[in-house]
Write a structure and sequence with these properties.
Length: about 300
């Protein structure tokens, strides 16, 4: 697979894309990177109720987000981008700026959320001072002015954590998701995200679970899978006989030089595969005569030529 390590922005982009699909299934509209002032005053994601025409379907919304209201401002922090105290202060500022920009005056219409992979000790220690109380494992709430939540999704999962967040947490939680998605037999955004962000883990999984190799190839297609790999990775992960079995003879021959092919074959194998007329047609006449003279001698060769002429 490629040597390039994904950037924090790639993790954020995939997280936004997966959450967008999650929230849109529940009839919310999603906006991302909304500007509320001069750069870098930009909200990561806003999840908005579309109103009476298409009211939110909370049955489709994971219980983790059942506190959502009409406007929900979100700050996202993946495993590659940790939350700082300044980010929480910025989130609250974004909430007020968003209300000003959208001419909202009712704080009961808006929520703030910091969706984070983990909390460092400094932030944890500051949470009570900032008005946050732990309401259950890995969820903190602040009721001052605008309703605000901090949700930590990187620790071991509970039933509330959707798959869209689980794949950003740890390898043990990603692996069953990869296998389950592959068993569906079709490409999915979850699998695309895993292949893009966690290439080395996919390599290890494929090496451990040989039965998943065929499923991965079947799901994504040979060309796409090969585009992820370096040649040495392919040989490391796949058995040589499996590689050869998956190739057409013409593909193998096209990848080899003629001298390499000939060097790998015994002379009798080459001759057995050719017709006599093809062999003769491929030889120069002077080379053929030199060989016959060396093998038979001039006198015997002349005698054979004379007899052939009589017939």
């Amino acid at each position: 697979m490629s040597n390039d390590r994904p950037s924090p922005k790639q993790y954020e982009a995939w997280l936004i894309q997966l959450l967008r699909q999650l929230f849109e299934r529940a009839n919310f509209k999603v906006e991302d990177h909304k500007k509320v002032g001069e750069l870098p005053l930009e909200i990561d994601m806003i999840v908005i109720s579309t109103g009476a025409e298409k009211p939110p379907n909370f049955a489709e919304l994971p219980p983790l987000f059942h506190y959502f209201r009409q406007h929900n401002v979100m700050e996202l922090k993946t495993e590659k981008d940790r939350l700082e105290i300044a980010d929480l202060l910025k989130l609250h500022a974004y909430g007020w700026l968003y209300m000003m920009k959208e001419s909202l005056i009712n704080v009961a219409e808006i929520t703030l959320t910091a969706l984070v992979h983990h909390l460092n000790p400094v932030v944890l220690q500051a949470l009570p001072t900032l008005g946050y109380k732990q309401i259950r494992k890995d969820v903190y709430r602040c009721d001052a002015h605008v309703l605000s939540h901090i949700i930590v999704f990187g620790d071991p999962a509970d039933a509330e954590i959707p798959k869209e967040l689980q794949i950003f947490s740890n390898p043990s939680r990603r692996q069953p998701i990869i296998v389950n998605e592959l068993q569906r037999g079709e490409a999915s955004p979850l699998l695309e995200a895993v292949l893009d962000l966690y290439e080395s883990e996919v390599l290890k999984l494929m090496a451990i679970r040989q039965e998943t190799i065929g499923r991965i190839i079947e799901t994504f297609g040979r060309e796409k899978i090969l585009s992820y790999f370096r040649p040495e990775d392919v040989v490391t992960v796949f058995r040589k006989e499996d590689i050869l079995a998956s190739l057409k003879p013409e593909d193998i021959l096209a990848s080899l030089k003629p001298e390499d092919i000939l060097a790998s074959l015994k002379p009798e194998d080459i001759l057995a595969s050719l017709k006599p007329e093809d062999i003769l047609a491929s030889l120069k006449q002077e080379e053929m005569l030199k060989r016959l003279v060396a093998e038979l001698g001039r006198d015997r060769l002349q005698k054979m030529i004379d007899e052939a002429g009589k017939n």
